[in-house]
Amino acid sequence: MASDTLRFGMFLPPYHARHDNPSLALHRDLALVEHIDRLGFDEVWVGEHHSAAFENIGAPEMFIATAAERTRNIRLGTGVVSLGYHQPLMLAERINYLDHITRGRVMFGVGPGALPSDGAMMGIAPEELRPRMDAALAVLEPLLRGETVSADAGWFTLNNARLQMVPYSKPRVEMAITAMGSQSSAVAAGQYGMGILQFQSVGCFPMPGLAGMWNVANESAAKHGKCLKRRQWRLVMQMHLAESREAALRDVRFGFEQWVDYLSQISDLPMPAKEVRGDALAQAFIDSGAAVIGTPDDAIAAIERHLAETGGFGVAMLMAHDWANSRATHDSYELFARFVMPHFQKLSVNREVSIEELIEARRQTKAGQHGFDRAAGS
User: Fold this and answer.
1) Cα(242)–Cα(329) distance, rounded to whole angstroms?
2) Contact criterion met (CB below 8 Å) for 48 and 82
3) Tell me, what DSSP letter sits at residue 174?
4) Could you tell me what percent of the chain has a pLDDT over 70?
5) How far apart are CA 362 and CA 357, in angstroms?
6) What's 28's domain CATH number?
């Protein structure tokens, strides 16, 4: 059941340890999407990466096409397509196809490209990626509305280009852009009226100035005659839940260190000292506020804190990370759906009123009965 206010989703990079069976990992990813669809999650975003071993989905559109056949309600987004790697018309055709076959369940997340090693294999220098993204966005947005576009960006040319089918979603598919620390993405989001996929933490430390990024997007939107709504703002959080904090820490012994090692090797993200290992490593993320490894109550407290700090956002997203084995991972999402989502969706308001009324009526009945007993005894 979707909430009128806060919605819930998953961000699937994915993260899979390099010693793990990569083919089986893809099937586990699909099974996890099926699982959270049954649990009532609203959406999932699937990443695109081509190197570095851990993030092994290279074609999120194909993953989405497969997942669409196995799910009923969940919305499916690219999280994200690296625009500088793709001829825009070809990309627009693939997204528009998904828009039609999912009957509007697809979303289009974009970014410049997170791994320089991806671009290196295609001969694209890191400094070219963001200008390529900007050039692609300028034509993708009108193409996806069904308009005719001509452009010459050097690395691509369009001559009276248009989609063969008008979009299923009107006026176009929902679009969003990733935001890490740079404000450039927020500016682009405002310019094109797109949502933001924002990470609550980077490495072992929470991102500063989350609300500031949203303000930048809104200022850009106003400058370009667009209006952003907070429902378009998605906050990606790192969580693993169990029935107790001790159980959650035991669960993440399965894969937390490998995940930290991967991030340390491919980026300059702030991390604990190398000698910090085991439960102490996970505890460092908990203590800094970069991750919740605990109970549903801990998750509720964290989300409420982020809502207060930011002034509100539209979707609370859980990062898929393989910290725990498949069974514990599925259990974590089930705990979130059973006890965290209803808290914010107010699903049990009438149930609470009903039982409180019953308790009060029974209390008054018993009080009246005792009064009758006392009168009879006198």
Assistant:
1) 9
2) yes
3) E
4) 97
5) 8
6) 3.20.20.30
Query: What digits encode the pLDDT tens for the residues 240-290?
Result: 999 999 999 999 999 999 999 999 988 888 899 999 999 999 999 999 999
Element (H, E) at 365: helix 349-377
Strand, helix or coil at 164? Answer: coil
Tokens matching residue 117: 């090693």
DSSP three-state, residue 181: coil
Same domain, 250 and 336: yes
Q: What is the pTM of this model?
A: 0.94
Task: Give the total number of structural domains in the chain.
Answer: 2
pLDDT in tens, 313-360: 999 999 999 999 999 999 999 999 999 999 999 888 898 899 999 998
Give Rg (Cα) of the chain.
Answer: 24
Is the same domain home to 19 and 55? yes
**Terminal Cα-to-Cα distance of the chain (whole angstroms):** 57
Query: Is the distance from CB of 189 to CB of 137 less than 8 angstroms?
Result: no
| Residues 247 and 324 grouped into a single domain | yes
Residues 273 and 373 placed together within one structural domain of the fold: no
Q: Do 130 and 150 reside in the same domain of the chain?
A: yes
Amino acid at 68: A
What was the pLDDT predicted at 2?
A: 41
User: Is 184 found in the same domain as 111?
Assistant: yes
Per-residue pLDDT, averaged over 3-16, amounts to: 89
- Give a yes or no: residue 2 inside a domain: no
CA 330, CA 190: separation in Å to the nearest integer? 36
Tell me if residue 197 falls in helix, strand or coil: strand
Residue 254 lies inside a defined structural domain of this protein: yes
Q: Are 58 and 48 in contact (CB under 8 A)?
A: yes
Q: Cα–Cα distance between 239 and 317 in angstroms, integer?
A: 10
67 is a domain residue: yes
The one-letter amino acid at 233: W
Q: Are 332 and 239 in contact (CB under 8 A)?
A: yes
> Does one domain contain both 12 and 154?
yes
Could you list the residue range(s) of the whole structural domain that residue 156 is in?
Answer: 7-347
Cβ neighbours, 10 Å, residue 190: 24
Paired tokens of 372: 């009758």
DSSP track, 169-230:
SSSS-EEEEEESS-SHHHHHHHHHT-EEEEESEETTEEPS-HHHHHHHHHHHHHHTT----G
- Residue 318 lies inside a defined structural domain of this protein: yes
Shared domain for 79 and 157, answered yes or no, is yes
